[in-house]
UniProtKB/TrEMBL annotation:
Top-level lineage group: Bacteria
Catalytic activity entry: a myo-inositol phosphate + H2O = myo-inositol + phosphate
EC main group: hydrolase
Family of this protein: Belongs to the inositol monophosphatase superfamily.
Name of the protein described by the UniProt record: Inositol-1-monophosphatase
SUPFAM superfamilies assigned to the protein according to its UniProt record, in alphabetical order: Carbohydrate phosphatase (SSF56655)
Record keyword Lipid metabolism present: no
Keywords associated with the record: Hydrolase, Magnesium, Metal-binding
EC number, UniProt record: 3.1.3.25
Presence of keyword Transcription regulation: no
Species whose genome carries this gene: Parasedimentitalea denitrificans
Length: 261
């Protein structure tokens, strides 16, 4: 699969940052960690990965804007294009030695996500998609699951931690969903949750209170893999609200009704 110049820049940047993170992951116990917030940590590895991504992406496309987790937003000379980057989605997993974390890079053009890369460096799984060209994992074209029945379906979400205010709402979601499905997973990386929907490992995913960089790349991955993506409130702009629901097409209507109550 040969993508556009922009997609190739994104994949190259993800691999370079992934190499740095894998090296640090092997020495995870020696990382110096600063507390960024309750239950939310940032490491030297995280910051180093973002530096690599910033150098690679803005070095190649210096006029584009920049939005990322660990640094200030930069408005680009080209106001229509912006990189949206999470250098390490699943930081808590990373710091606990759990090999489930990813680099997420999206390219936004005129308010729409037109390309996305999610790199699971620990497993060497590179997910990528570009508008109109399908979704891929390494050399393999990927599609959403073909399951039609909720009772056979597995879903993913994030569970609020450390006293976050959306816990009661999420517990209500689970109370409605768990009796109707085959299971719900909470693996700690929204980017990989959406990648797993795109590759058919999950039938669907929903979560509230995410950031743009958590889900931007996942949006186009799911869409190009044949899935549906909306805000939990259907008309919302997902990038702005950070609330998302996605699933394969046969399940989406029923699943979204359950989540939306």
């Amino acid at each position: 699969m040969i993508g556009s110049a922009n997609l190739n820049i994104m994949i190259k940047a993800a691999r370079k940052a992934g190499k740095s993170l894998v090296k640090d992951f092997r020495e995870v116990e020696n990382l110096q960690v600063s507390v960024k917030g309750a239950g939310d940590f940032v490491s030297k590895a995280d910051i180093a990965a973002e530096k690599i991504l910033k150098e690679e992406l803005l070095g190649a496309r210096p006029t584009y804007g920049w939005m990322a987790e660990e640094s200030d937003e930069i408005p680009g000379q080209d106001p229509t294009r912006r990189w949206i980057v999470d250098p390490l989605d699943g930081t808590t997993n990373f710091l606990h030695g759990l090999p489930h974390w990813a680099i997420s890079i999206a390219l936004e053009h005129k308010g729409k996500i037109v390309a996305g890369v999610i790199f699971d460096a620990a497993k060497d799984e590179m997910y990528f998609a570009e508008k109109g060209t399908g979704a891929w994992m390494n050399e393999t074209r990927i599609r959403v699951s073909g399951r039609h029945r909720m009772i056979e379906s597995v879903f993913a979400t994030g569970l609020p931690f450390a006293g976050r205010s959306d816990l009661p709402e999420t517990l209500k979601d689970l109370a409605r969903l768990l009796p109707a499905c085959a299971g719900v997973r909470r693996w700690g990386s929204a980017a990989l949750d959406m990648a797993y929907v795109a590759t058919g490992r999950y039938e669907g995913f929903w979560e509230r209170r995410l950031h743009a960089w958590d889900l931007a790349a996942g949006i186009i991955l799911v869409q190009e893999a044949g899935g549906l993506v909306e805000g939990i409130n259907a008309d919302d702009n997902i990038i702005e609200t950070g609330e998302v629901i996605c699933a394969n097409e046969p399940i989406f209507e029923t699943f979204s009704k359950v989540v939306r109550g």
